Write a sequence for this structure.
């Protein structure tokens, strides 16, 4: 199971990478594998205000749709527009090319997990 | 002498795409000539309709001869499984035989216009009135609306009546929650959301019933309704139904009966007697209106007396006050939730359901549920003998959920069944059972058919165990095999025009 | 009648396999107190008895005679091949095409339907049907609210009154506001649309039969950032400007007039078509093209993540069963007559309606306004329209759908002409109306 050490996670399988006041959000390798081929991503609008633990995006495969929660609160400053044409980037590169959106952080979710705690969550669901 | 089988060329239909009707089209070719077609010649549409109102080019509809048309749609019908041709044990769908006499009778009513003078539609109104009464009797409810077009539409109608009930009591702000079991049909939570409620899902217990303690804990004066299917989607009767209804009643929570599984109890028990306040029926399931490849369905809603004022209008009334007619329509219903559709309902389907009830009578309806449950239990055991475990092994009702041996996929079994000419069961539902195979044989199938199905399943299993790759590549004989659903969803091509543009 | 195949031996065999003593024992989970109620239902009939009984009910209806009834549905000619092909048992007794390998017939036919309805409306994407015109309007409004994130809908009073009532029912429960725009004469007022409106809904031809200035209304909606929803008669689109041409975002309506029987109001079907931008907001089932493992073309249900069986409480709609068979019947109808035939059907109605209008004017029954109309129009009457309708019925003629009092037009009735309307039918109607009018003046 690929769970990078430099990220934090939610138990609903989102990852967040914090750099200064910017947070990049995506879904974990485990999550993309569970979903199967991603066919569509509904992204937030730039400028939208995210509150932590609120649905901000939806990742769809053929038979499922997953709500994506924001691990942070703040303003959405960028979305990964390339996912519109190539949603498979989420399957192929969940931690790099498959990122979903970036937020200018004003607060963190109280539920953030470190990699080893998230590992336990994912293992229990596998 | 050795004969070598030569594969047919791509000129044969097996190896080429079945053409779209658009691909059969030839500019200028004519099929049916409509009545008074000559009126179109030399007509000045600019004068009649105004140049500003005319479309700039004709719609690109197919141009085919009548024989082209017949070949096309006969060919399509040949690429389609149906109850008339194939055993079709889809769980929760009640794919029973649809009697031909209903189709004959329904054809006598097709020309009625919804706005014709009611004195010229007395037969239709009498039928509606009589059907409403029969459905009330069968379900143990006090009043019925026949308007909803489908089960989900019936759910919406029923939940809106509950909403209105609490609005009248001044409790609308307070009653925000609708409770559904986690194994409920997706339409239940979707309906509750569409009607403006929050949904709370309750888990099931080890016996396949709703977890009574969890349900009880979720009850509060904030709950407007509990939606239940009984028997539930596992084919198991909720044995604590009377406890559930008395707990609900104590808090004035309305109990909603999703009638998708009525085939299990019709003629033998009535939701009204179980304490349900609202019920919808799927006439296209229990009352054998054909499914039509996805619809039209029909979802009448029955209610107890306290909800009667909220029924959508109009309602057919016998000897309506102030009317000389035997049957009239009551439009003036001040507390009604309002219309949920145009006109009076899917009348053509109501004719079929009415004919069915008149054909069977009370004893015949009881025979329906008796044989439906007998068949389902028989097939459950036959399948378990072949190696398919039952998710909740106990006497089930009209359907049950089985699972394949570990490591094998339900999807693959579904595909393999297609080569045997039988339709698969419902797969991957309910979501609470992994690799679920939800089987509903219905009462109209013979034991021979059920034996055959079980044997086919056993054969597939044995072949799969010997050669897993064989199973994973099935089916082999269908017109197309394992379509790419990911491609379809990722790059949607939803019309012929788009198909041309994509090429 | 009995449709269960079980012999007594079968039942015993099954009971033995299951291991219960009798059929009643299968129902032991049911609470004792509620088992086996006595159902007061009429006695069962055999097949001949059913046929006779149904015939006796059918005989109490009168459907023959000249028919000028419209108001959202109208009787049209349905070619023999259309009925024969639609009601093939493979189409009638199939379920929703969940196993595409054995449902290519249904799937392809619905893909073709989607293509045809998009051709008629001039929009990009269609689903594979909704219940009826009224619920299609409601679904379109909900779609617009989802897409725009706004909470108000403007609807013209020219939209069918029963559609508006339905719309009201659907919007009220989600707390959305419905604003009605009155008709000015028989046209929708081109009101200024506020910037918090999610969509403007206009019907063309409107309920009174009049053609609206859809371009101007569409422009007004778009200027406010609202979607424009056109409620259209699909037959009229053989000749009239289509929603795509005036920039509608959504086109909806009832498909009965293209190949379905009126069936006393149902089942026909509702259609909904949208621009590509709104594709993923569509409610209901959609068929898409794909390829199989051998590279062959095939069709599947697609974009299913919008739907209730996957999204549950977050689905775009709760719709599950749709009206596939009726949509299929329309597709077969459209293919049978083709573009030229559809034009002939539409124009025959226009021509006969024009003749009817002049003939009624000659006996003093004036159309309520000037302005263009398609195949239906409203006339002013000296007595209530339902009385006229009844008196016509007594003379073997069907006509005069009452215009509801909410329009404030006094006594008014709708008359519709189609390709089934002959010159003789018009003469018969005119003679009857003349007779009815004379009787009133005699009474006065």
């Amino acid at each position: 199971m690929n769970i990078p050490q430099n990220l934090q996670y939610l138990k609903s399988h989102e990852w967040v990478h914090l750099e200064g006041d910017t947070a990049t959000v995506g879904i974990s390798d485990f999550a993309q594998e569970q979903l199967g081929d991603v066919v569509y991503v509904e992204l937030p609008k730039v400028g939208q205000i995210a509150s932590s633990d609120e649905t901000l995006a939806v990742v769809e495969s053929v038979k499922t749709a997953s709500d994506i929660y924001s691990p942070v609160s703040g303003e959405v400053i960028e979305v990964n527009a390339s996912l519109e044409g190539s949603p498979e980037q989420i399957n192929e590169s969940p931690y790099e090319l498959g990122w979903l959106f970036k937020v200018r952080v004003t607060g963190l979710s109280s539920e953030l997990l470190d990699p080893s705690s998230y590992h336990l969550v994912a293992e229990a669901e596998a | 002498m050795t004969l070598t089988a030569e594969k047919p060329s791509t000129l044969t239909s097996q190896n080429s795409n079945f053409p779209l009707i658009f691909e059969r089209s030839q500019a200028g070719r004519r099929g049916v000539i409509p009545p008074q077609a000559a009126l179109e010649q030399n007509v000045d549409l600019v004068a009649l309709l105004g140049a500003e109102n005319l479309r700039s080019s004709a719609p690109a509809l197919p141009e085919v001869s009548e024989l082209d048309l017949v070949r096309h749609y006969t060919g399509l019908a040949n690429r389609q499984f149906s109850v008339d041709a194939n055993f079709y044990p889809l769980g929760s769908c009640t794919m029973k035989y649809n009697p031909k006499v209903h189709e004959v009778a329904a054809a006598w009513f097709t020309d009625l216009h919804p706005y014709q003078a009611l004195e010229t539609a007395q037969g239709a109104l009498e039928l509606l009135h009589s059907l409403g009464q029969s459905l009330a009797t069968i379900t143990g409810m006090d009043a019925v609306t026949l308007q909803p077009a489908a089960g989900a539409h019936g759910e919406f109608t029923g939940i809106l009546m509950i909403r209105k009930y609490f609005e009248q009591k001044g409790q609308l702000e307070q009653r925000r929650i609708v409770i559904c079991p986690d194994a409920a049909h997706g339409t239940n939570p979707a309906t509750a959301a569409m009607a403006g409620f929050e949904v709370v899902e309750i888990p099931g217990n080890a016996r396949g019933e709703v977890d009574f303690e969890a349900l009880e804990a979720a009850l509060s004066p904030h709950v407007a309704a509990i939606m239940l299917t009984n028997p539930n989607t596992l084919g198991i009767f909720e044995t604590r139904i009377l406890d559930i209804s008395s707990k609900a009643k104590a808090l004035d929570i309305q109990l909603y009966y999703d009638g998708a599984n009525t085939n299990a109890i019709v003629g033998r028990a009535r939701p009204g007697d179980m304490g349900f306040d609202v019920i919808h029926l799927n006439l296209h399931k229990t009352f054998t209106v054909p499914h039509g490849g996805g619809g039209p369905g029909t979802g009448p809603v029955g209610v107890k007396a306290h909800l009667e004022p909220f029924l959508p209008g109009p309602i057919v009334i016998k000897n309506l006050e102030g009317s000389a007619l035997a049957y009239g329509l009551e439009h003036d219903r001040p507390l009604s939730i309002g219309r949920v559709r145009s006109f009076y309902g899917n009348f053509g389907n109501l004719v079929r359901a009415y004919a069915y009830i008149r054909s069977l009578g009370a004893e015949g309806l009881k025979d329906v549920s008796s044989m439906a449950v007998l068949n389902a239990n028989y097939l459950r055991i036959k399948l378990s003998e072949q190696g398919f475990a039952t998710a909740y092994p106990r006497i089930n009702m009209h359907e049950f959920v089985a699972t394949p041996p570990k490591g094998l996929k339900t999807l693959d079994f579904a595909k393999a069944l297609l080569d045997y000419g039988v339709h698969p069961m419902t797969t991957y539902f309910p979501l609470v059972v992994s690799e679920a195979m939800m089987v509903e044989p219905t009462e109209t199938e013979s034991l021979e058919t059920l034996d055959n199905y079980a044997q086919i399943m056993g054969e597939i299993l044995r072949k799969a165990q010997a050669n897993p790759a064989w199973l994973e590549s099935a089916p082999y004989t269908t017109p197309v095999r394992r379509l790419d659903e990911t491609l379809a969803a990722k790059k949607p091509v939803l019309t012929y025009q788009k198909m041309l543009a994509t090429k | 009648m009995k449709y269960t195949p079980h012999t007594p031996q079968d039942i015993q065999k099954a009971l033995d396999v299951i291991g219960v003593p009798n059929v009643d024992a299968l129902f032991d989970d049911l609470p004792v107190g509620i088992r086996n109620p006595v159902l007061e239902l009429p006695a069962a009939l055999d097949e001949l008895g059913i046929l006779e009984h149904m015939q006796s009910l059918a005989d109490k209806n009168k459907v023959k005679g000249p028919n000028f009834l419209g108001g959202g549905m109208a009787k049209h000619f349905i070619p023999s091949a259309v009925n024969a092909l639609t009601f093939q048992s493979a189409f009638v007794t199939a379920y929703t095409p969940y196993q595409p390998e054995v449902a290519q017939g249904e799937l392809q036919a619905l893909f073709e339907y989607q293509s045809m309805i998009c051709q008629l409306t001039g929009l990009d994407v269609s689903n594979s049907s909704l219940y009826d015109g009224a619920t299609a309007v409601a679904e379109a409004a909900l779609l617009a609210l989802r897409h725009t994130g706004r909470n108000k809908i403007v609807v013209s009073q020219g939209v069918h009154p029963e559609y508006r009532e339905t719309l009201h029912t659907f919007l009220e429960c989600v707390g959305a506001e419905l604003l009605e725009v009155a008709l000015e004469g028989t046209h929708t007022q081109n009101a200024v649309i506020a910037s918090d409106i999610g969509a403007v809904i206009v019907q063309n031809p409107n309920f009174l039969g009049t053609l609206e200035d859809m371009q101007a209304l569409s422009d007004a909606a778009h200027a406010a950032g609202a979607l424009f929803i056109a409620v259209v008669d699909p037959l009229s689109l053989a000749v009239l400007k289509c929603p795509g041409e005036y920039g509608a975002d959504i086109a909806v309506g009832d498909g009965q007039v293209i190949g379905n029987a009126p069936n006393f109001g149902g089942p026909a079907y509702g259609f909904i078509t949208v621009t590509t931008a709104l594709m993923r907001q569509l409610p209901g089932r959609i068929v898409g093209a794909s390829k199989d493992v051998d590279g062959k073309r095939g069709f599947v249900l697609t974009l299913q993540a919008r739907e209730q069986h996957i999204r549950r409480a977050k689905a775009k709609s709760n719709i599950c069963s749709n009206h596939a068979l009726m949509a299929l019947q329309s597709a077969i109808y459209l293919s049978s007559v083709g573009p030229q035939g559809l034009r002939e059907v539409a124009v025959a109605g226009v021509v006969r309606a024009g003749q009817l209008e002049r003939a009624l004017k000659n006996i003093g029954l004036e159309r309520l306004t000037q302005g263009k109309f398609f195949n239906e129009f409203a006339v002013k009457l000296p007595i209530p329209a339902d009385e006229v309708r009844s008196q016509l019925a007594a003379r073997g003629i069907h006509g005069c759908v009452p215009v509801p009092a909410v329009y404030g037009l006094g006594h008014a009735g709708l008359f519709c002409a189609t390709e089934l309307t002959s010159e003789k039918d018009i003469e018969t109607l005119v003679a009857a109306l003349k007779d009815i009018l004379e009787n009133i003046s005699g009474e006065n």
